[in-house]
Amino acid sequence: MRTRVKKPEVLAPAGNLEKLKMAIRYGADAVYIGGQAYGLRSRAGNFSYDDMKEGVAFAHHRAAKVYVAANIVTHEGDAAGADDFFKTLQVIGVDAVIISDPAMIMICAAAAPGLPIHLSTQASATNYKALEFWKKIGLERVVLAREVGIEEIREMRRHTDIEIEAFIHGAMCIAYSGRCTLSNHMVNRDANRGGCAQSCRWKYDLFDMEGGKAKSLIPEGGEAFSMSAVDLSMLRHLPDMIDAGVNSLKIEGRMKSIHYVSTVSNVYRKAVDTYCADPEHYTFDPAWEDEIWKVAQRDLSTGFYYGVPTEKEQLFGKPRKIPKYTFAAQVMSYDPETKMATLQQRNNFGTGEEVEFYGPGFVHFKQTVHDLFDENGEPIDRAPNPMMTCRMTVDQPVEPHFLMRKK
Amino acid sequence: MNLIATAESVGQAEALLDAGVDTLYVGGHPFGLRLPRPLGIEEIKEIIHLAHGRGKKVTVACNALMHNKEIEQLGAYLSRLAELQADAITVGDPGAILTLEELKLPLPYIYDGETLVTSAEQIAFWLKHHAVGAVAARELTLIELKEMQSRLEKPIEVLVYGPTCIHQSGRPLLSNYYRYEGMSERSDKDRGLFLRDPKNPESQYPIFEDEDGTHIFSTEDLSLMAQLQDLKENRLIWWKLDGVLLRGEPFVRIAALFAEAKQAVESGTFEPAGYCNRLKDLQPANRPLGTGFYLKDPKEIH
Predict the structure, then answer these.
(1) B9-43 per-position pLDDT tens digit
(2) pLDDT higher than 50, residue A300
(3) Which residue of B has its CA nearest to A147?
């Protein structure tokens, strides 16, 4: 029965207010953000209460939702003040909080009754009984561990009606969620409290101790041992995720740029809408994949969804050549009379260059930069200064918040 | 007080009981995680029989992260353990806790969420869900452990000797590497493999692969021999000895030393220096002893 599918939510990361707005303009049904405490991205741009208010107002005006991650694993004293934090989030109108620590869950439930709680992937939910446990505690949703397969999700759905959120795109933690303290032991940085130093991506020697002496196993001229995984992308397999009953399709990357967030949201929005509108006649559009590659930083794979990852899903050796696109400018306004767009520069570009404009709804076109003017209307060859305002003639109509990229 | 030690076989279990261990910690695949050797239910039965014959206890490891398949098999396993009168199990998966509740088995559980057991409030949550104790994460300091125990009625188990797992991946990281390099090497625990961070030439992290994925351990074997008196005075009286990387007789000798130390602590005659020196003599040459996070200031970790 593929004719009646329940449309899942496209959930995008937002490191700050600008990214939040972009993600929503580009089709995200919901975004997840961090507050100034209790999140796992202590080094990401996080939201002040005022930013949160603005973000929530922006989102709700467009029927989108905002979730706040408060997924640290607390030590003694870390939870101090969390009750006020959750109360404030509730007043601000945040739609849910994402928590892994049961102490934080209890604090939240007591301080902000009615504020929906989602179980963070850090809590490693890998079976339907675990989902049922959290449902009985009163949670509305569980973010699955990254180690589950599609068939396992299908089976979970047969046994429980708690909402299921699953990662569909982005970098993958190599550890079983929450089972990594490499950073703690190597550099005194607690990964479970936002300090992850990505020690898994370092280069290691692999050796044995034959006869009491260390003997390296790394072959002559070989690669050092490392634990890096290629990134996840379930774009080609969205129908499987949707049919399995996943309610929320989660994109990783609160540290990523608006170029990334807008592009990925745009693609998944388009693919989900296309599939759900007519599942039986759905065909995959290779243009979506091309688009994803424009912001990819690593190779892409399907993680654990179709089996345990092999050496092909690890990052060994020379990275594959990924077409690098640069975010060049953002459209501020457009004059249909003159066909001129006013742009805010984000990276150096100039006349004669091939550029691509894209906007919400998966709108795209390529063109050459025919002309360029500074804010006083003086012709220029290049727009060299970050955030400078400039104007150019565009081949097709654009709108504010369209972005321009170049190879 | 409760001195807990892993056992890899019926024979070693008997030797550990003779050495003065109070509780044996055993388990099998796929429910128990990172054991010296996974034991079958018949061996577990024999070990329970042995222990109970001497008035000692057995805790069975059920602390794996379970997928649907395992959670479906778990009920029968737990029922069997209850029949065999196992004294307790360790559990880290809430799905296992729900299974236990549903079957109404007379099988107490100790919460063992590995790296996720880091505060008294968290443990209080699991106690409210009928846990009888909890295994502390090894990334805690003594200052934190004492604070936690002071807030809780039920005991927190502290690792006083052994390696600590610092990473578990669901991926076969060694096999993947071998395949990439075209090598045919063993990746099991007995192969004795280590990782070294080139920026820290002293480091040697044991690594192995099993059905649960890849496991990486700390450079040091933790030892709280010098702090045993302090632990007792702060009601931290569940002491675990982990033999996951140390086979046979050498582990038993270390357990015997800790049992002797425990008696000395109980009788007020404990003198740490002598015990620490004796432990050093028993310790395998290629494994340094250390105190991990225990003696750090909580503020050092950020």
Answers:
(1) 999 999 999 999 999 999 999 999 999 999 999 99
(2) yes
(3) B170
Among B165, B160, B97, B106, smallest CA distance to B128 is for B97
Tokens describing residue B299:
């503020």
Whole-structure pTM value: 0.95
The nearest CA of chain A is from the CA of B34 a distance in Å of 13
Question: Do residues B255 and B19 lie in contact, with contact meaning Cβ atoms separated by under 8 Å?
Answer: yes
Q: Minimal Cα–Cα distance from B38 to chain A, Å? A: 21
d(Cα A343, Cα A163) in Å, to the nearest integer?
41
Please give the Cα distance from A108 to A68 (Å, whole number): 12
Contact B119 A79 (CB under 8 A): yes
Contact B171 A185 (CB under 8 A): no
CB A254 within 8 A of CB A41: yes
Q: Is B186 on the interface with A (CB under 8 A)?
A: no
Is residue A255 within 8 A of residue A14, CB to CB? The reply is no
Q: Express each pLDDT in A119-166 by its tens digit.
A: 999 999 999 999 999 999 999 999 999 999 999 999 999 999 999 999
DSSP state of A125: B
pLDDT band at A59 (very low <50, low <70, confident <90, very high): very high
The three-state DSSP-derived secondary structure of A265-317 is HHHHHHHHHHHHHCHHHCCCCHHHHHHHHCCCCCCEECCCCCCCCCHHHECCC
Helices and strands in chain A, H and E counts: 10, 21
A 83-102 residues with CB below 8 A of B? 100-102
Better-predicted residue by pLDDT, B180 or A324: B180
Report chain B's C-alpha Rg in angstroms.
19
Q: Which of B97, B139, B147 lies at the smallest CB-CB distance from A184?
A: B139
The mean pLDDT value for B143-150 works out to 98
Contact A127/B219, CB-based, under 8 Å? no
Cα A227 off chain centre by: 21
- Give the chain A residue nearest B192 (alpha carbons): A208
What is the per-residue pLDDT for B46? 98
Asked if A225 reaches chain B (Cβ–Cβ under 8 Å), the answer is yes
Q: Residue A168: which of A262, A312, A23, A302 has the closest Cα? A: A302
Q: Which of A103, A129, A314 sits opposite B98 (nearest CB)?
A: A129
Instruction: Return d(Cα B286, Cα B226) in angstroms, integer.
Output: 21
Distance of alpha carbon A324 from alpha carbon B68, whole angstroms: 41
Which among A79, A129, A176 is the nearest to B170, CB-wise?
Answer: A176
Q: Does A293 contact chain B (CB < 8 Å)?
A: no
Q: What is the pLDDT of residue A82?
A: 95
Q: What is the pLDDT of residue B119?
A: 96
pLDDT of residue A4: 58
Is the model's pLDDT at A323 over the cut of 80? no
Asked if residue A3 has pLDDT above 70, the reply is: no
Asked if residue A44 has pLDDT above 70, the reply is no
Q: Which residues pair with A124 in a beta bridge?
A: none
Residue entry with tokens 């990357």: A253
User: Which chain A residue's Cα is nearest to B198?
Assistant: A204
Indicate the residue type of A173: C
Asked if A101 and B116 come within 8 Å (Cβ–Cβ), the reply is yes
Long-range contact pairs involving A390-394 (C-beta distance under 8 Å, separation at least 24):
A390/A329, A390/A342, A390/A343, A390/A345, A391/A340, A391/A341, A391/A342, A391/A343, A392/A340, A392/A341, A392/A343, A393/A338, A393/A339, A393/A340, A393/A341, A394/A334, A394/A339, A394/A340, A394/A341, A394/A357, A394/A367
Average pLDDT over residues A160-180: 92
Is a pLDDT exceeding 70 seen at residue A266? yes
pLDDT at A179: 84
Q: Does A66 or A4 have the greater pLDDT score? A: A66
Q: How many residues does chain A have?
A: 407
